Amino acid sequence: MTIAGLPEEELFAQGHTACAGCGQALAVRIVLKAAGKNTIVANATGCLEVFSTPYPSTAWRVPWIHVAFENVAAVATGIAEALKHKKEKHNVLALAGDGGTFDIGMQALSGAAERGHNFCYVCFDNGAYMNTGIQRSGATPKYASTTTSPAGKAVHGKQEFKKNMPFIMAAHGAYVATASTANYMDLFNKVKKGLEFDGPAYIQVDNTCGTGWKTASNMSVEISKKAYETRIYPLFEIEGGVLKNLKKPAKKVPVEECLKLQGRFKHLNADEIKDVQDHVDKEWEKLLKLEESKLKLF
Q1: 49-103, pLDDT tens digit by residue?
Q2: Cis ω for the linkage preceding 7 (within 30 of 0)
Q3: I need a surface site. Which of 33, 89, 160, 231 has the fewest CB within 10 A?
Q4: 161 vs 170: CA distance, rounded Å
Q5: Which domain CATH number covers 248?
Q6: Distance (Å, rounded) from C-alpha 294 to C-alpha 61?
């Protein structure tokens, strides 16, 4: 099935073993359509690596290497430097989930960005360590129930808000963008821009995990759309340390409209929903002011 407005060639083939309705599988298709055939992929351990390469088959139609949870940025920069030495031009993509980005792989990513290597890092953000059992990560939203932050009588899920990785990466001088499978053309364009950027690029993609989020398989794109409309997952760019191109939803939708679609939030009470709403509103106002000010953040 083709995706309107995007190149027809599929560099991420059918026949992988992703769960039905996997948002990450859709996102990877779009990312590779943007990158094109002249691309080398380094892929951290995670769902993507597991479901795309069930021995003896593979879904990858570009050169691909599987590396450990923690070192995909280091391997990608090694590839980039080798290509520079050989005077060859190829797009270098580092692909990882949020666990391998926000937590386990952050040291290697920070070092690679600080050194200014020319590669594009894409984080597929589904808000937990899904492949290893749905454990909480630094990207897990507050109050989400996971196997290591379960919703019990005393504590209702994770008790901390999500780590702000886009701003952390912007502080390293990288081109930064947030994207979503619900706006595939925006994701496509941001990947192309990240690959054209002279230096490190970091793109964080909101994608639903039906298994971990306890959602219906046919609702993946709709839930990502609601995350954008409720401003839970704002879409913007940071370039040269300046926040720009903040996409504004046509109308303000209450966060409950997104949360109620996900089983991982079914335990929330009115006070907790209000806490999430207040946090989202505060962060949105901050983004609006930063864009308007054109202030160089870092």
Answers
A1: 999 999 899 999 999 999 999 999 999 999 999 999 999 999 999 999 999 999 9
A2: no
A3: 89
A4: 19
A5: 3.40.50.970
A6: 41
For the whole prediction, is pTM greater than 0.90?
Answer: yes
Buried-state track 11-45, b at ≥16 Cβ within 10 A, e below 16 = bbeeebebbebbbbbbbbbbbbbbbeeebbbbbbb
**76 in a domain, yes or no?**
yes
Tokens of 132: 């290893």
The identity of residue 156, as a single letter, is: H
**Structural domain containing residue 183:** 23-293
Q: Which pairing describes strands 120-125 and 64-67: parallel, antiparallel, or unpaired?
A: unpaired
Q: What are the E-state strand segments in the chain?
A: 39-44, 64-67, 91-97, 120-125, 175-180, 201-206, 237-239, 242-244
Domain count, the chain: 1
One-letter amino acid at 271 equals D
Residue carrying the six token digits 């109620």? 260
Tokens of 44: 């951290």
